[in-house]
Amino acid sequence: MRKLFDLENPVFQLIARLLDLTVLGFLCMVCCLPVVTVGPAAAALFKSVYDLTLERGSGLFRRYFHAFRSNFKQAVTAWLLALLGFASLVCDWLLLRLYFEGTAYTVLAWIVLFLALLLESVLCYLFPLIARYDNTLQEHVRNAVILAVRYFPKTLLMVFLQMLPLLMATYMPYVLLSTLLLWLLFCPGFTAQANAFLLRPVFERLERDAAEASHGETE
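^ thats the sequence. predicted structure below, dont judge the formating
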């Protein structure tokens, strides 16, 4: 009976992790409200969840807002550029609907969709890179593109997870509306947790390769 209420019990640890992810997801949504801060909010969410995955550090609020502040400038710049890109693609799609039809519309619409997915693929790596490594934004973008291509299966899965609410809104809007509270509470944190698990071996390999290269240079 005593073991049932032991804080080291796996059940209690699972509940604690679920609560942590819910709190972090809520913090992220609140910080996203000004829209221009979506980038820093996403970077801070990944950083906090990744640290939880590694069982490193304590204090959810302190960890989240420290990551939010320390990555603010780069993440805001990256998000505004991405927002401009998405806005341009939406405008292109609207113009296609107005001025094209038939085969030409289908081909051009697929091109716009491909570019949107490509941009989303880069963002799946860009904000985690900003959150984890010190580098110029140009280098972060370059590395995000390389990783998106190199780890294509992981990229597809992360893009699917990011796009899942939009897919639900498009094809099952009534289901999304009936479960909206659950999506708002759990989707941000759990998506970040899934991405953290997917990216952990990627980052560990990058850091191992960098350490081996540095060791080779010193010899």
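Residues 180-218 form the longest helix (39 residues).
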